[in-house]
Amino acid sequence: MKTQPMAPPRENQVKLTVSVPPSLHVLLRSWAQCEGRELTSVVLQCVELSVRQLKSNGSIPAGAVRNYEVACEERLAAGSATP
């Protein structure tokens, strides 16, 4: 019987709390409603896209980017080390 390779362990998600102005909340909530999505899904999309843009234009400190890259490399290594 052939066994499937194990997937790397999934990272636990970290919960963050943010405060936004009421007008931004209306925009985000309306966006989510218009697309039939959860508000958290829309907010996560905004955060991901913003962080990628900030990373690509050099706005995030180099030390933070290095820490991120090291964490990614460790995750990849852990994934390839599983049988």
Summarize the structure in words.
This protein has 83 residues and is mostly helical. The protein has a domain at 31-81. The protein has three helices and no strands. It has helices spanning 22-35, 39-56, 62-81. The two termini are 15 Å apart. 0% of the residues are buried. The mean pLDDT is 89.
Quaternary organisation? single chain
**Low-confidence parts, pLDDT < 50 over ≥5 residues?**
none
SS strand fraction:
under 5%
The ordered H/E elements are: HHH
Number of strands: 0
| Overall mean confidence score, pLDDT | 89
Helix share bin: 55-70%
Shape: extended
Helix and strand layout, with pairings?
Elements: H1 22-35, H2 39-56, H3 62-81
Helix pairs in contact: 1-2
Summarize the structure.
This protein has 83 residues and is mostly helical.
List keywords for this structure.
extended; mainly alpha; 0% strand; 83 residues
